[in-house]
Design goal:
Layout lengths: L1 H8 L6 H7 L6 E2 L2 E2 L1 E2 L10 H14 L8 H21 L6 E4 L2 H13 L7 E5 L8 H4 L7 E5 L1 E2 L4 E2 L1 H7 L4 E7 L11 H10 L3 E5 L11 H4 L3 E5 L9 E5 L1 H6 L23 H21 L6 H28 L4 E4 L13 E6 L4 H10 L2 E2 L1 E3 L4 H6 L8 E5 L6 H16 L1
The structure holds pyridoxal-5'-phosphate.
The site of pyridoxal-5'-phosphate (PLP) has 13 residues, from helix 5.
């Protein structure tokens, strides 16, 4: 079986056979064909331990927080543990972790709180490479007289125009919002430099790490960003969002909130009753990452080190698949790939690949692939500025093929064969 072969002969430390055995969804078939999940950028599958944690919470501890009885106390404890786990995932303290419905909701809440401090003429720098969730919530502040400056990207390789970014930041800039990686074209941005430029100008930095989180390690301390957001459903957890904010900002800013909510962080940023079962699933999701890392590098001594070891193992596997996928795609007649295609520059992209093929709409390709049990996406994936700038919005956007660590070389080969067959007609 290809997966077992790959697991034993692979030079990486990723135990792919074990990985795949953790995800029940991966063993499903349609018409006897195994389902191939290439839709990770829209949401990944979850390991059994996440499903079990959600079911276990609902079966045994379902309660609201702050009550004077055991299931409520267990809920409080579970949330504290999940916060600490996410703190290790992002490398920050527990009280700097805010749980919410999703990244978009958290970003609207934060943009409203930050917007309270801004005055007419203040500037915010956004990029045209970003998902709309890191664009529209900030652009909404134009109603307060805030000036929005947008940064271009280079159309040939879909990388951020860093000269334009540096030129758009000035003494009037109050915040720079940028994606860690593009959910459309896969570019990984130089966020270290973006944060440095923002800081130099006295502006806050707000990093959308939703797309990057399943592909690379995040270290908010090393990055020294002011805020960073991600969504657990993109890195093998349940449907939820997580926001990191530097403690000083979380304490200083004034969120809109109901009166009984305390003024203490992080609770003053978490409104109403949270999704406790998904928070339980999020803790289990970090446990999954830790387990993966400990298998890859048994000598690791703590959870954070295990998460980093998991990323190391994942990185090599994703890189090898991406290389094969891109080489195979580029050999298909009439296919155009948007984004970095030179293997020497693959460190600047992740394994999220968008293409168009002459004579076929993205929807038609995704539908035909779907009929063959390959799950891909078509359209703009809310990266609306990207499809508009590349003039493909009116043409149905792109076909997006997203690889994550549970995918296999064999799946890459089969996807390429299916696509070649569809194109031949
Ligand atoms: C890069 C990026 N940012 C933000 C979002 C929005 O995340 P959420 O669905 O958690 O609001 C997505 C969702 O696809 C995304 O890919």
């Amino acid at each position: 079986m290809p997966i077992a072969e790959q697991a034993s002969s692979s030079p990486t430390a990723l135990d792919l056979a074990w990985v795949r055995s953790q995800f029940p969804a991966l063993s499903q078939t349609i018409n006897k064909h195994p389902m191939v999940f290439l839709d990770g950028p829209g949401g990944t599958q979850v390991p059994q331990q996440v499903i079990d944690a959600i079911a276990d919470y609902l079966s045994r501890n379902n309660a609201n927080t702050g009550g004077a009885y055991p299931t409520s106390r267990n809920t409080d404890r579970m949330i504290a543990e999940a916060r600490s786990a996410m703190g290790d995932f992002l490398n920050c303290d527990s009280d700097e972790i805010i749980f919410g419905a999703n990244m978009t909701t958290l970003t609207y809440a934060m943009s409203r709180a930050i917007g309270r401090e801004l005055v007419s003429g203040d500037e915010i720098v956004l990029t045209l490479l970003d998902h709309d969730a890191n664009f529209s919530p900030w652009k909404a502040l134009e109603e307060k007289g805030v000036v929005i400056r947008t940064v271009k990207f280079n159309k040939e390789d879909c990388t951020l125009d860093m000269h334009d970014l540096a030129a758009k930041i000035s003494g009037r800039t109050r915040l720079v919002a940028v994606g860690y990686a593009s959910n459309a074209v896969g570019t990984i941005n130089n966020v270290v430099e973006v944060v440095r430029l923002a800081r130099q100008a006295g502006a806050l930095s707000y990093i959308d790490a939703v797309h990057y989180a399943p592909h690379g390690p995040i270290d908010v301390r090393a990055l020294d960003c002011d805020f960073l957001v991600c969504s657990t459903y993109k890195f093998f957890g349940p449907h939820m969002g997580v926001l990191y904010g530097k403690r000083e900002h979380l304490k200083r800013l004034h969120p809109y909130k109901v009166r009984p909510n305390t003024d203490n962080i992080p609770n003053c940023w978490e409104w109403g009753t949270l999704n406790h079962e998904c928070i339980a699933g999020t803790k289990a999701c970090v446990d999954y990452w830790e387990g993966l890392g400990r298998r890859a590098k048994p000598a690791v001594t703590n959870r954070r080190a295990a998460i980093l070891a998991a990323h190391e193992a994942i990185h090599q596997h994703e890189r090898a698949m991406m290389q094969k996928m891109i080489a195979g795609l580029l050999a298909i007649p009439g296919l155009k790939l948007y984004g970095i295609s030179d293997p020497r520059r693959f460190e600047n992209r992740c394994a999220t690949i968008v293409v168009r093929i002459e004579g076929h709409t993205p929807l038609e390709l995704a539908t035909k692939l779907g009929e063959r049990s390959f799950f891909t996406w078509d359209g703009n994936y809310y990266a609306l500025n990207v499809t508009e700038q590349l003039d493909v919005e009116r043409l149905g956007g792109f076909l997006r093929i997203g690889l994550v660590h549970y995918n296999t070389m064999d799946e890459v080969e089969r996807l390429l064969a299916a696509l070649r067959e569809i194109v031949r007609g």
